Amino acid sequence: HLYWAVLWLALAAGMEVIGPLLGKRLIDEHLLPHHLDWTRMALLLGGVLITGWIATIVRYLQLVRLSGVAMRSVQRLRERVYGHVLRLPMAFFDRAITGQLVSRVTNDTEAVKGLYIQVLFVILDSSIVLIGTVAAMAWLDWRLMSIVVALLPFVLVIVWAYQRLSAPAVTRARQLRSDINAQIAESIGGMSVLQANNAERRFGDRFAKTNDEHYTQRLAEIRANAWLLRPALDMLNIILLASVIFMFGQREMSAAEVGVLYAFINYIARVIEPLIQITMQFSQLQQSVVATSRVSILLDEASAAEHSGAERRPRSAANDAAQAVQIRDLDFAYVDKQTVLHKLSLDIPQGAFFGIVGHTGSGKSTLLSLLLRYYPAPHGSILMNGVPLDEIDNEEFRADVGLVPQDPFLLAASARENIDMGRGLTQQQIETAARAAHAHDFIMAMEEGYDTVLGEGGSRLSTGQKQLIAIARALAGQPRILLLDEATSHIDSQTEQIVQEALNELRGRVTIIAIAHRLSTIREADRIVVLNHGRIAEIGPHDALMQIEGGLYQRLYLLQQLAA
C-alpha cells in the first residue's frame, strides 16, 4: 500500500510540474507572438486543465491509501502494545501507573497515524514536488535556479533552530499528558476515599498545577511554530520572488523569456510551499518521535514468558511427583540487604490443604508472589509437580495454578463472562465451578441468572458474593493448585463458613495453599505454616499448634478470639 501511495505521489507531482511548462509554451509560442492557432492553444490549455485534474484524482487516491496504511498501523500497534501489557510480569505493575499505561496504549499509538498521514505524506509529497520543480527550473534557466538553491541552507537553519527550541517542550508536554491521565484515573478509582478525607480541593489543586504546566509547555511549542515555521518561510518566499524579478530586470529580456518568468513565478510558489509544509510537520514529527519512543520502551519490557525462560509447550498430563510444591532454601529481597524470606524450605503434598499465617511483614504475601511467579527467585528454588518454576511454560503454569485474590476483580459483564474469562467454557463447566464455589444459588436468584450483568467492579453484589464468584472463576480453570490470598479477610462470618465448606469439598482433588489473616478459615487445614520475619516459626495442624504453650500461632489465635 505504501509503494502504491508513493507511486501516485510521484505521478501527482509530475502532473503539477508539467502544468507551468504547458503554460510557458502557450505564452511564448502563441500569445506573445500573436500566433493564434486555436487548435494548438486549446490543446495546451486543455493539457493544463487535464494535468491539474489528474493530479487532483491521484492525490485523492494516494491520500486514501496512506490513510488506510495509517489506520491499519495504529490498529495493529495498539493490539500489539495491549497484548504485550497483558503478558507483562506483575513486578512491572508494582511500579507502573495505570493512567500512564492507558495513555501509551491510546494516545501514543494514535501518534503513529499522524506520522503516516501528516508527516510521511507531506514530506514525501513535498520532497517529490520540490525535486521535480527544481529539475524543471534548471531545464528552463540554471542561473535563476541557482538563486533558489542558494537560499535552501536558510531553511535548514530554520529547521535546526526549531528543533532546538521545540523538542524539550514537546517531550515534556507528552509526559505531562500522561500525568494528567494518571491523576484522573487515580482520582476516579479512589473517589470514595478522596471525598471521605475532604481532599477534593487538594486533588483539584494538584491537577490544576499539572494542567497549567502542560499548557505552558504547549505554549512554548506554539511560540516556536509561530516564529520559525510559516512566518520565516513566507519571508523567504518574498525574498526569493524579489531576487528572481530583480535578476530578470538586470538583463535584456526578450519576449520569449516572459514565459520563463511566468513559469519561474509559478515554480517559486511550488518550491517554497513544500518547504513550508515540510518544516511545519516537524512539530508533529517531534510528537510522533516522542510518542513512539515511549511505546518502544514499553514493548522492550520483558514479558512474563520471557522472564520464565521456558519454551512453549502444551499443558502436560498430571505429574506423578508426590509433592505439589517444593521450596528449597529460598531467600528473597525486594531491595538489596533487606531480606524478606530467609532459607525457607517447605514440602506441600498433592491434594493437601496448607494454611500460611503470620503477623504483618512476616513474608506471607511475598511467598505467595513467588509461588505465582510474579518475581523470580534469585536464591533457592521452587518446584511445582517436580518441575522448577522457571522451566514451566507460562500458559501451562497459569492453567495449573488458580488464584483467589483478597480483593476480587470483576468485569462489568455478566456472571457467566466473569467466571468464563474468555476461556470458551460450556454452560455445564461454568455451573459446575459455581456449584463448587457455592455461588450457583445466588446467581440463579438474580433476574437473568448467569446472564445478569454485575455492574462495574461487581457493584450489584455483596463483598462475599464477589469472593464466591472469584473462587468459581479460579475453579473453572480446573487448576491443580489453588492459591488464596486472604480471601476471607473482607467477608462476613456466614460467607466465611460457605468458603470453608467449598475448600473442604476440594480437599484431596486440588492442592490448596491459603494465605489467611482470619485463622478460622484455615483451622481445618492439614498443616498450618506460621511465618515470623521470613522464617518458618511453627508448622503443624491447628490442634498441635494450640498445644505449644506461648507459641506464636497460639497467641495469634487467642488474640483473634478476644477481638471477636
What can you see in these coordinates?
The structure is a single chain. This protein is an alpha/beta fold and 564 residues long. Mean pLDDT is 79; it is low at 310-320. α4 packs antiparallel against α6 (152-189) and α4 packs antiparallel against α10 (256-280). It starts with a helix and ends with a helix. The chain has helices at residues 2-31, 38-86, 90-95, 98-140, 142-150, 152-189, 191-196, 200-228, 230-249, 256-280, 282-299, 304-308, 364-371, 394-400, 415-420, 427-436, 440-444, 463-476, 493-506, 542-546, 552-563, and strands at 323-335, 338-349, 353-358, 379-384, 387-388, 401-404, 481-485, 511-515, 527-532, 535-540. The chain has 21 helices and 10 strands. It has 2 domains: 2-301, ABC transporter transmembrane region fold; 323-409 and 465-563, P-loop containing nucleotide triphosphate hydrolases (Rossmann fold, 3-Layer(aba) Sandwich). Strands 6-7-8-3-9-10 form a 6-stranded mixed beta sheet. The longest helix is centred in the N-terminal third of the chain and has 49 residues, at 38-86.
Topology:
Elements: H1 2-31, H2 38-86, H3 90-95, H4 98-140, H5 142-150, H6 152-189, H7 191-196, H8 200-228, H9 230-249, H10 256-280, H11 282-299, H12 304-308, E1 323-335, E2 338-349, E3 353-358, H13 364-371, E4 379-384, E5 387-388, H14 394-400, E6 401-404, H15 415-420, H16 427-436, H17 440-444, H18 463-476, E7 481-485, H19 493-506, E8 511-515, E9 527-532, E10 535-540, H20 542-546, H21 552-563
Parallel strand pairs: 3-8, 3-9, 6-7, 7-8
Antiparallel strand pairs: 1-2, 1-4, 4-5, 9-10
Helix pairs in contact: 1-2, 1-4, 1-10, 2-4, 4-5, 4-6, 4-10, 4-11, 6-8, 6-11, 8-9, 9-10, 16-18
